[in-house]
Every structure is written in C-alpha cells, then in structure tokens.
Amino acid sequence: MDADTIIVELKNADQNILSAALQYELKEKLETNNSFCTLGWTSLLQDGNRYRFCCYQTSPITTTDDFDYSTNRDIAQAKQNMLEGKPVPQCEYCMHAEKTGRRPVRKIMSHELATLTDANSVEEIIKLQPVDYDIRIGNQCNAQCRMCNSEDSRLIDIEYTKLGLQDHELGAIPSTSFDIINIDTAKRVYVAGGEPAISTEFAKFLQLCIDNDRTDMVLKINTNAYILPKRFLKLIEQFDNVEFVISVDGFEDLLYYIRYPIRWDAFAENVKTLSKLGTMCFSHCIQMYNVMGMYDLFAYFDKNYADHRSIILYVDNPDKFWFGNYPDKNAALEEIKKCKTLNRYNLDAGFKQDLLHIENTIKNCAIDENTLQEFYDFTDILDGSRNHTLKEYLPALDALRRKPCLQIRQN
Asked: What is the architecture, at CATH level 2, of domain 133-400?
C-alpha cells in the first residue's frame, strides 16, 4: 500500500471489508513470504514442557522445564526465520497444505489473529506478546475414537495395553497448567483434549476468570459433545464470547463406531444445548472409516445447521487410516460427487477447497495393499474388544477386503 494512501472508516462500514482493507499490508506479506505467520507473535501452545505457536506445527519449537517466552532462544529464532522468509521446520504442515491445495490455514489464522489484536501491519504484529493461548488438558477423555491414541485418551491407553497394541500404559497425563495464561491480557483461550468438558483444571480456570471479571475473552473449546456436566454448563453460560469446535466424524451409527461409545441421539441433543451458549463450527476428521459416509454427515449439518461451518481435517498418521488408501476409488469419487451438491460446497470456499483436495488425492494416489491389510488387521482387533464388526457398520468396506483393489475406471 502506498504511503500516501488513506483509509477512511465510515460509521456504517462493512466490518469484513474494512478489515480486509486495513490488513492489505499483511496480505501482501503472507503472499510474498511463505514462512511468515502472525501466530509467531500472538499465540502460544503449551503441552507439558513442549511449546509451539499452534496445533498445526508438527513438533515443538522448544522443549524445556524452565520456559520464559521473552528470553527463549528457540522462540526468537523461529520468529526471525519467519521475518526473513526462511523455512521453519515445525511449520511443515501449512507449507505442504498450501502446495497441495488444502485450506491455507496459515493465511486464514494470521488474518484472524490480526483482527483479534487490532494489528493491521507487520510492524504492529512483531511488537505483540502472546494473547492467544492453546491449552491441552492431557488424556482425560470419555471416548475411544478409532483414530486417536493413548496420549489423548486414557481409555484408549488402557484398551491398547490390554490388546497388546502397545507395550505399556502411559498412565494419566496431567493437564497443561493454566498458569501460563496471563489472565489480564488474554484475548483468546483455546482448550482441547482429551475432553475439556470433563476437565477439573479447566473448570477451575473458568471460575478464576469469573472471579476476576474476565468473562469477556474469547473461549474456544474443542469438544466431542458427548457428556456436558452441569457445572461446566453453568460456568460457560457466564462468558460472553464462547466458540465451540464440535468434533463429529460420522452420522448416526457410524458416529458410535468411530467415536465409541458416543451415541448419535445424545450427541445431537447436546449440540442443541451448546448452540444456545455460543457460536459453533463442526470439525470432521476424514479417514478410511468415513470417506464413504461424508455425504450423510455433511448433509445433516447442511440441513440442520446451515449457518455453521464444517471444517475438514485429515487423519494421515498412522498411515493405515489415510483416506487416500480407500480400496474402491470409483465409489469414493461418487461419494465426493454427491457432496458437491450440498450448499456447503457452493457457499463455503474453504469447504470446497478441502473437498477438491480429497478428490484429487483419491484420483492421484496409488493404493498400498500392505497398509490396507494393516488397517483391516487393526480394525479386527479393535472390533473384537468392543464387540463390533466392520461388516455391521461398514459392509462395503468389509466386502472389499476379499476383492482386488478397485482403481479408477478408464473411459
């Protein structure tokens, strides 16, 4: 933007258009510097003694038992690399996402945090200290999601040890201390799990905010909406700006199979409850178990929660869950074709971009039969533990184990 350019804010200005205009310099920086990210200055994620700028970073920026943000050399070096356009190894996810046509998370979140902090220029951003916190509450959880792990669910930890899927129990992993949050300056606190709704530590933090008259900060809560304790609801209703990120990966019985033991009817009722306490969006982890259930899942939210976004994530670790290895590519492409008829596809650019990424992945990736067998073997072990069968919940996927992998038909 030229030095002589002046932006005049009208009283009735559209805030989205105004924000875009004020953030023009930031937009240019994000387009010309593939390493720069606002979160390097605004945000902090603590998971035990590991520290990152955001949950998309593939490994910690620094690991220490004596953390001081202002003096930590690893934090300072990562920010310097961002300014100079040098790669930050921990930011591999966003770099890869932008190259492969996924939703540009770095750009979206950078603009979001710039708006939250009223910082419109790079110069303003690099003067900031963290006001956006990401807290992980350990492996306190009430579900055993098939694609999850012992670090995020104590119930899985116990089950996997019993089944011989891991050598030993990790035990209960404690919540990150909420003490890292500067309650006087915090603008947003994001809490994920485990399951935050059942966390005693989170409840204590909410009460602390209430006692200190800080119920104006944005609370962003990732939840499976399975169990909503009365104490949690009473605390949450006292906050002014609550955002729920609701994890849901299957419609009706498929939800129970993937996110055992969550039942659809209870989930749907709890979503109605949460809708009265704050804004919502829905987070869907696309994987082998639900790539053929996408339409039913998205169609439900298209019909019942048309004004609430669906955010698509991908389970690509471990490899056995990766949707790109689905053994009938033609069927998967037909499922995607149905999804393209939904309002979400036509009205939400991010959703459309993610769905096209799924389509391109299905088209272009060869099936790895060894990994596919690993998926079936794991599924059989887990089904035996839970008294389920793949045939009952996903008969088409079960039938495919006895057939050659079906590649894309050639016209």
From this structure: Alpha-Beta Barrel (3.20)
